[in-house]
Specification:
Shape: elongated
CATH class of the largest domain: Alpha Beta
CATH topology of the largest domain: His-Me finger endonuclease fold
Oligomer: single chain
CATH superfamily of the largest domain: His-Me finger endonucleases
Radius of gyration: 32 Å
Length: 145
Amino acid sequence: MSKKWLEIPENRVRHDLYMRDYNKEYEKRPEVIARRALQYPKKKEALNLKYRTNEEFRKLCISRALRSKRDKQVKLAGRPRPNICEICSRTPKASRPFIMFDHCHKTGKFRGWICDSCNKALGHVEDSPEILQKMIIYLEKANVI
């Protein structure tokens, strides 16, 4: 095949289609598969390992991301995460297992380390001191406190 023949656009397209089909069939030949396995054993093992343990790989990526997030939060807070909530002074249990990084949603400033229950309570009252005061008055009227 000459270069002049390939310079004609129709011939070039015909040649590319032929080569694509030929390469697909060539890669399916048993001797080619065996040769590739011998040539790239480490690559093959790495691919098999990755696909066999895809769930473990995903968990590893998630744990790295969470660790990175926790490290950033501790750095922003300027102090390590304590083992008790700064609002209710309770330690985490199975019912409320986390001490969370609390921040102002308007400014993004760190406010403190609080448990999941206190964090949800603040979220329900939309971080409003007025609503919290009204809740205190309501509880006092009902003699609950």
